[in-house]
C-alpha cells in the first residue's frame, strides 16, 4: 500500500480541510486513482449533517501516485484537526515548496514534508507525521452516500458569505430550526419563527440549473430515466433543517464559488458546493442535511 | 412570496417607510437595554419608550420628517385606552394616538437582518463567539465597518486585499437599506419589510405586538429645575465608562454654584460638576472643571447633590455613544433628566436631529 503526492493547490486544500474540521473531529478519506474523497458521515453530527466530497486529482495534486491491493483504493480515517495543523504550516504566505503527502506502508501515518522560506530567505523544512487508521478492503464497499429522492427544486444559492450573514442574523430570531424553501422560478426563502416574530428573507431572480446533464450525485443520475412529476414552477417546496447544521455548512463559504441547493421536501437538503473556478472545476463538496419533520402542534 | 403583500389593501393604522434605516436603528439601539418597548404612534411621529426597574424611563421620539413616508390613520371606532406617557389627558383628547408594545431587541435584530443597519454600537458579546478562521472573508464580518481593533490584526488586513472585490460589493450594498413599517391594529403583528437593494433579497418580518402595559409616569416638569448643564456627550460617556469598570453601585451627581469672582476663590472653589461613584471597593470621583470648553452651560443656584443607581445611569451609555451633546437636568425632587442629541446623518438637515431622553428617579437617602 503506497501513496505519495505533492499538493499543488495548497490554499484550496487547506480551506477544504478547515471546513471539514469544523464539521467533524475525525474524517474518512478515500483515495482512488482519479479522485480524493473526504467523507464526514458521523451519526452524532449536529442535525445529522453529512459531507461527501470529490476532489479531482489533477486539480489539486501533482505527481500523484497510489498503489494498493484493493484496486488501488485506500480508505483511511484521520484526525481532521491534525490535518489542518499540518496544512497550516504549508499555507503560510512565504511557503514556496509544495506540501508532500506520503504514506509509508509499515506504520500507518501520513507524512507532510513542507519546505518554506523564512523572511531572511533561508529555507526551513517542516515535517508533520499524522497518524491514520487504514480501513480494511471489505469495509470500503460498505461506505455509501445517502440515497435521496428526486429533489423538487434545485436552485443556485446566492453567495454563501452573504447567506451566512443573514443566517447569523436570523439566529436570535429563530429557535433551533430554520426553514429553507424555494421554487423553480428562482425564488429562495429562509424562514424563522418564534413566539415573538416571524421572519422570511427572500431572494428572487436566482437561477435554476438544469441538473439532468451530469449531476454529481446518484440522486440526480437516477433522475435521467425517471418520469418527472408535473410541478408548477411557482410552487414553493420547503425543508426544515437545524440551524446549527446550516451554519456548519455555511462555514464552507471560504471555498465556495457556485453552490446548488436541492430541496427534497420533508426529506433532506442537498447542497453541492463547487470548489475552484468555473473553468477548472476542482471538486464538489456535497452536504446532506436531513429534514426535521414538524410534528405540528 | 410576491403575493404576500396582498393584504396591503386594507387600511393600516400605521404605514411608514424609510430609505435608509441606519439612523432609525441608532435611535432604537440607544434604548436596547430593555427588551420591552412601548410604541406610541400619532400624527407627528412615533415615540418609543422603555423602562427599567420602574425607576428609569427612556424615550426616543422619531418625528415624522425622519420618515420618507408616514401615514397614520387612527382607529375609527372609540378611542383606545390612551397609554400616553406623560399623563397628558387633554392632549390625548385633541390628538389621537395608538399604543402597543413590541420586543425591542427582536425589532432591532430584524432591522439588522442583512447586517446593514450600521455598527456604531458595540456588538453583542454572543456574536463574538463565532468561529473565525484566519482566511475568513472580511465581508461576512458585519461589524467590520467600525474599524475597531479586531483580533485579526495585521493578518486580517493582509487577507482583506485578496477578497477586495467582494468587500466592495458589501459596502456598496450597505448604502440605503430601506424598510417599510406597517401596523394593522390591535392583535395584528407589526410588519416590517426590509429591502437591501432593488434586486437583492427582501426580508419580511412580523413582530408580535402586545397590548400596552401600565406605564410608569415620570414628569420632570412637576417640580422646578435646580440644575441645568449642557456638555459634550463624550465627556459624560468617557467618565461613565471609566467608572463602569470599577463595579460601582451608586452614582452621586454633585453640582456647585459658580465660584465668587476673584482668582484665589476660583482656585479653591469646589468643581462645578462632580460625579462620585461608590461601590464595595471604595469610591471614585470625577470632577469637571469650570471651563466652557467642557461644560457649555452650567446653571445651579445652590449645591445640588443626588444619588442614583449606577446601573440605571449607565443604561444611557449606548445612546451616549452615538450622541454629540447632552443636557443634564435635575429637579427639586432629584429626578435626573438626560437629553441626548443624536445627530442626523449628513445628507439630512440638522434640524431633523432626534433626541433620546432618560428620566431617572434618585435613591432615597437619609
UniProtKB/TrEMBL annotation, chain A:
Cited InterPro entries: DNA_clamp_sf (IPR046938), HUS1 (IPR016580), HUS1/Mec3 (IPR007150)
Matches recorded under Pfam families: Hus1
Record-linked Gene3D superfamilies: 3.70.10.10
UniProt keyword Repressor present: no
Location(s) in or outside the cell: Nucleus
GO BP annotations listed: double-strand break repair via homologous recombination; meiotic DNA integrity checkpoint signaling; mitotic DNA replication checkpoint signaling; mitotic intra-S DNA damage checkpoint signaling; nucleotide-excision repair; telomere maintenance
Any single GO CC term annotated in Swiss-Prot or TrEMBL for this entry: nucleolus
Keywords of the record: Nucleus
Family note: Belongs to the HUS1 family.
Entries under PANTHER family matching the protein: CHECKPOINT PROTEIN, MITOTIC AND DNA DAMAGE CHECKPOINT PROTEIN HUS1
Record's protein name: Checkpoint protein
Species assigned in the record: Wolfiporia cocos (strain MD-104)
Upper lineage: Eukaryota, Fungi, Dikarya, Basidiomycota, Agaricomycotina
Automatic annotation (TrEMBL), chain B:
Recorded family membership: Belongs to the rad1 family.
Keywords of the record: DNA damage, DNA repair, Nucleus
Xref: PANTHER family: CELL CYCLE CHECKPOINT PROTEIN RAD1
Name of this protein: Rad1-domain-containing protein
Annotated GO biological process: DNA damage checkpoint signaling; DNA repair
SUPFAM superfamilies xrefs: DNA clamp (SSF55979)
Location of this chain's protein in the cell: Nucleus
Biased composition (Low complexity): 144-155
Protein origin, superkingdom: Eukaryota
Region (Disordered): 72-96, 124-164
GO CC, one annotated term: checkpoint clamp complex
Main subcellular location of this protein, as a coarse class: nucleus
